From TrEMBL, chain A:
SUPFAM superfamilies: Chemotaxis receptor methyltransferase CheR, N-terminal domain, S-adenosyl-L-methionine-dependent methyltransferases. Coiled coil: none annotated. Residues 1-262 form the CheR-type methyltransferase domain. It comes from Chitinophaga costaii. The keyword Transferase applies. GO terms for biological process: methylation. Keywords: Methyltransferase, Transferase. GO terms for molecular function: S-adenosylmethionine-dependent methyltransferase activity. PROSITE patterns: CHER (PS50123). Pfam families: CheR (PF01739), CheR_N (PF03705). It comes from the Bacteria. The keyword Methyltransferase applies. InterPro entries: Bact_Chemotaxis_MeTrfase, CheR_C, CheR_MeTrfase, CheR_N, SAM-dependent_MTases_sf. This is MCP methyltransferase, CheR-type.
Automatic annotation (TrEMBL), chain B:
Residues 4-191 form the CheB-type methylesterase domain. PANTHER family: PROTEIN-GLUTAMATE METHYLESTERASE/PROTEIN-GLUTAMINE GLUTAMINASE (PTHR42872), PROTEIN-GLUTAMATE METHYLESTERASE_PROTEIN-GLUTAMINE GLUTAMINASE (PTHR42872:SF6). One of its GO terms (biological process) is chemotaxis. Keywords: Chemotaxis, Hydrolase. One of its GO terms (molecular function) is protein-glutamate methylesterase activity. Its EC number is 3.1.1.61. GO terms for cellular component: cytoplasm. PROSITE patterns: CHEB (PS50122). This is protein-glutamate methylesterase. The active site is at S13, H40, D133. It catalyses: [protein]-L-glutamate 5-O-methyl ester + H2O = L-glutamyl-[protein] + methanol + H(+). InterPro entries: CheB_C, Sig_transdc_resp-reg_Me-estase.
Length: 273, 192
């Protein structure tokens, strides 16, 4: 069940760091081990030694390695109540700014970003917003840019949209072509898709809202702390931070700077610097 | 690297909620092991389930949060829509990757992860269900020297899941519902 052993995972991750500067050494080990074993059997390596040789000597393989060991599963309007809270409690505050900057960190294939753009459009704020959507994996960013998602998911997304307080016809936001739904380009005119590695890259702007959901679960405590510090530094005073439904600021070094806006939702406001 | 704590993991699908509710009052308080429960369920039932379980036992019942540390005498419920993994330092991780056996959480994922770390200090129990999720996981538990038990398919509301496990082999014990809690209590006493 585990062709690649725990010690060998460590060896591979060190190679990745040493040869290419990709630092996965502070990721949660259990998930890493699953992903690396999955890749090992998917690419049919006869032995760990050959797997390692490929990683160390074939830079072209690294792109594929990063794409496969990161988990890119995502959805539109996932956890509708989170989006409802954004609509009700966050966007009205952001509306008071002349100019709104939002950062989606770990945006994967962009479903979350299009969801946000729809919220902004419906609040009549899209024209004065800029969304930075970043991920470590450049292949998912390419997909996100296209805004083309499987049509089979639209029924679920439409239900999520309605549960998030959406009152329009969801299907007006995309055009259906064969098995795909292409989202209107007007939605992503104000979106900048760019690679950014939360482990090694620093802050690049100040935002009023940062959303990073289901990324921290892959990091160990130390790395979570480091990344939360990066978010804190990248937020304006009174800016908002949105995390995944099972993630928390509790027990972290940054917590005292934040106040959770609603007990049930994973949205915090930065109240001190 | 084996964990010093002993662990019980319970997986269930259709027809297993009732079994758990009957089993919980029979658990010893305090209990020397940690218990993890992975249930296939709809995502909205969250806190309802915790309340329901808590009303049947004086052991602490909690839904797993990111990086929770396993403590003896505590019952951990896997949250909906995430896989639950175990770390070698005794903490729990959540994972939002593809569904396995059309399920997230997948019982196989948690059983296999626990098998690797807990070896013979693990008891895995598979309850009623209509899906084969958990069967491969039990195989891993068996291979790593852990104890494997299933609910008797004949008394399960949906027999498919435990039946598949029995056919695969490697099952140490077939349990009636009323035997489950005593079996866990005994496991806790002998592996402590
Ligand atoms: C499970 S997806 C979450 C997608 C979306 N935010 C959601 O909640 O539905 C995790 C994403 O985090 C990205 N990621 C992992 N490590 C990263 C890092 N060090 N820097 C930036 N993004 C990272 C992965 O490539 C993946 O797209």
């Amino acid at each position: 069940m585990n062709a690649v052993k725990e010690e060998e995972i460590g060896v591979l991750l060190n190679d990745m760091l040493e040869c290419y500067g990709y630092d996965f050494t502070d990721y949660s080990l259990a998930s890493m081990q699953r992903r690396i074993n999955r890749l090992f059997s998917m690419d049919r390596f006869p032995s760990f030694a050959e797997f390692r040789y490929r990683v160390r000597n074939d830079p072209a393989y690294i792109q594929h390695f990063v794409e496969e060991i990161t988990v890119n599963v995502t959805e539109m309007f996932r956890d509708p109540s989170f989006y409802l809270a954004l609509r009700k409690q966050v966007l009205p505050m952001l509306a008071t700014y002349p100019f709104i900057r939002i950062w989606h960190a770990g945006c994967s294939t962009g479903e979350e970003v299009y969801s946000m753009a729809i919220l902004l459009q419906e609040a009549n704020l899209l024209h004065k917003s800029v969304i930075y959507a970043t991920d470590i994996n450049t292949a998912v960013l390419e997909k996100a840019r296209k805004g083309i998602f499987p049509i089979a998911n639209m029924q679920q997304y439409s239900q999520n949209y309605i549960a998030s307080g959406g009152q329009h016809d969801f299907s007006a936001y995309y055009s259906a072509k064969y098995d795909y739904a292409k989202f209107n380009e007007s939605l992503c005119r104000k979106v900048i898709f760019a690679p950014h590695n939360l482990v090694t890259d620093g802050s690049f702007n100040e935002f009023q809202l940062i959303i990073c959901r289901n990324v921290l679960i892959y990091f160990n405590k130390d790395l979570q702390d480091k990344v939360l510090k990066l978010f804190s530094e990248s937020l304006e005073q009174l800016g908002y931070l949105g995390l995944g439904s099972k993630e928390t600021l509790k027990f972290t070094a940054e917590v005292h700077k934040f106040r959770q806006i609603d007990k049930r939702e994973k949205i915090w406001r930065k109240v001190s610097i | 690297m084996m964990n010093p704590l002993s662990l019980v993991v319970i997986g269930g699908s259709a027809g297993s909620l009732e079994v758990l509710l009957q089993m919980l009052p029979g658990l010893d308080v305090p209990l020397a092991v940690a218990i993890i429960i992975v249930l296939h369920r709809k995502s909205y039932a969250d806190s309802v389930l915790i309340d329901l379980f808590s009303s049947r036992t004086r052991l602490l019942v909690k839904e797993v949060e990111e990086k929770d540390l396993l403590q003896p005498g505590t019952i951990y419920l896997a949250p909906p829509d995430y896989h639950l993994l175990l770390e070698s330092n005794g903490s729990l991780s959540l994972d939002y990757s593809e569904k396995i056996n059309f399920s997230r959480p997948s019982i196989d994922v948690t059983f296999s992860s626990a098998a690797r770390l807990y070896g013979p200090r693990l008891l895995a129990i598979l309850l009623s269900g209509a899906n084969a999720d958990g069967v491969l996981g039990l195989h891993h538990v068996h291979k790593m020297g852990g104890m494997v038990a299933v609910q008797d398919p004949n008394s399960a509301e949906v027999r498919y899941m435990p039946q598949q496990a029995v056919e695969q082999g490697g099952v140490d014990k077939i349990l009636q519902v009323k035997e489950i809690a005593p079996f866990i209590n005994k496991f806790a006493a002998v592996t402590r």
